[in-house]
Amino acid sequence: MKQRPSFPAKLDGLKVRRAGHVISANAGSDHSPQGLGLDSGAVRARMVQLLQKQGIGDSLVLNAMGTVERHRFVDTALVNQAYEDTSLPIGLGQTISKPGVVSRMIELLRNGATGKLGRVLEIGTGCGYQAAVLSMVATEVYSIERLRGLHDRARENLRHFRLANVHLLFGDGMQGFAKGAPYAGIIAAAGGEAVPQAWLDQLAVGGRLVAPVHSSLVGGGGQALLVVDKTATGLRQTLLEAVHFVPLKSGIA
Ligand code: SAH
């Protein structure tokens, strides 16, 4: 079992607070990629077991991870690795996040909610995988991507699943997406120096943000997961384990 980095237990000034429908269209069709065998569901079930061993306990998250066909979001040459706990290249220098990190972040985002979350904003659509997972644990998903090539690819990848509650946006996610605000949850798949003010403004009171941020407390200027809870009295920030994400960049390309 892979241990989560224990970094950091507690930080000065930050309170540490530890925190449907089936997405497999064309079931039974000839879409099982080579090497995955006829039943990719069994491979996903093994992946879910691994996630449980890593400490993921939210049944809605586990169900979503066991349902969304990750192999449809990666290159044909990489399908054999689709259910390994590893990030994979998705083109334009970007990566699909590790299943362990996706489930960890979404579990944190849900913060123990029993039913689905309300509206959620994802910054960094990438190939669209995490947006598909989010669509099963939230009522609406707004996902924004700054690279046109990946925005188009995500649209293509997701078309297959016909997810009426996923809204793909092309733009600079540093600005958030004010039209969809306030959000019950905001999740970033790219890490910056700090959390943009727009995200905090667009978070609902009672909502939670989960994002990788660069922290001087991580060796080598690395990133850590930051959780921000917006309460009636202000923001409560919690810095958790070290992570490794692609950089958050401004502007579109
Ligand atoms: N959730 C994605 C992970 C993609 S990697 C998946 O499941 O595949 C992170 C993505 O964030 C990259 O595609 C990158 O282009 C994007 N990104 C970085 N900065 C951004 C910004 N300011 N606005 C929107 N997307 C951004």
Short description:
The protein is globular. The chain is an alpha/beta fold.
Walk me through this protein's architecture:
- With 253 residues, the protein is α/β, with parallel strands linked by helices.
- It has a single domain (14-247), classed as Vaccinia Virus protein VP39 (Rossmann fold, 3-Layer(aba) Sandwich), CATH 3.40.50.
- The chain is built from 6 helices and 11 strands.
- The protein has helices at 40-53, 59-67, 99-110, 129-135, 148-159, 197-202, and strands at residues 88-91, 94-96, 117-123, 138-145, 166-170, 183-188, 190-191, 203-214, 223-231, 234-243, 246-247.
- The strands form 3 sheets. It has a 7-stranded mixed beta sheet with strand order 5-4-3-6-8-9-10. Strands 1-2 form a two-stranded antiparallel sheet.
- Helix 1 (40-53) packs antiparallel against helix 2.
- The chain starts with 39 loop residues before the first helix and ends in a 6-residue tail after the last strand.
- The model is unreliable at 1-22 and 25-32 (pLDDT under 50).
- S-adenosyl-L-homocysteine binds next to strand 2, helix 4 and strand 4.
- S-adenosyl-L-homocysteine is lined by residues 90, 94-97, 123-124, 126-127, 129-130, 144-147, 150, 172-174, 189-190, 246, 248-250.
Task: Offer a few descriptive terms.
253 residues; alpha/beta; Rossmann fold; 7-stranded mixed sheet; two-stranded antiparallel ribbon; 6 helices; 24% helix; globular; disordered N terminus; binds S-adenosyl-L-homocysteine
